[in-house]
Amino acid sequence: MDTAATTGLTFRDATDADVDALVALIESAYRGDSSRTGWTTEADILEGQRTDPEGVLAVIKAPDSRLLTVERDGAVVACCQLEHRGDHAYFGMFAVSPALQGGGLGKVIIAEAERHAHETWGVAEMHMTVISAREDLIAWYERRGYRRTGKMTPFPYGDERFGIPQRDDLQFELLVKPLAQPAQ
Questions:
Q1: Is the pTM of this model over 0.85?
Q2: Per-residue pLDDT tens for 63-113?
Q3: How many angstroms separate the CA atoms of 164 and 158, rounded?
């Protein structure tokens, strides 16, 4: 594991007091000019918002869900949603500060999320959905052990809570990863 990426990190559950900082982080990682600093930008395929305070608060408050918040030196630098869904966990709302992308922090966070989901809920798989047009992002997840399933769900065109599409071929693909069984 990249020690520079893990230095000074604190993992904790988000609270109501984190909502504004988390919305700002998520928006900065995916939308607008600030997102172009990193490589996870969706600015060329979606305009408008990625999330809003109500959406973030809903994840924080949902049963069988947590919004894992990552801090360094007291500042929120990353987050991800984990939701227990029976035999698997769902991974979403993943954001790393654009200024810190490309330094190994994302790998550390996803590994911690997988460990937590497996140890806390005993799930055997992690699921996520990714916009299928995001080939670079899907390739990154594939390098982390996720596999494409070919199972697609439509993008919610017309629901601006998810952004304003700049193309008409957007859909979500389900990615799945088996989680390691603990050593006996």
A1: yes
A2: 999 999 999 999 999 999 999 999 999 999 999 999 999 899 999 999 999
A3: 8
Closest CA to 40 of 96, 92, 113, 114: 96
The encoded tokens of residue 96 equal: 């790393």
Q: At what angle do helices 19-30 and 53-61 cross, to 10 degrees?
A: 120
Spatial CA neighbour of 58 closest among 89, 75, 29, 81: 81
Amino acid making up residue 52:
D
Q: How far is residue 129's CA from residue 69's CA, in Å, rounded to a whole number?
A: 20
3-state helix vs strand vs coil in the chain, percent to 5: 35, 35, 35
Residues with Cβ within 8 Å of 3's Cβ and at least 6 positions away in sequence, in order, are none
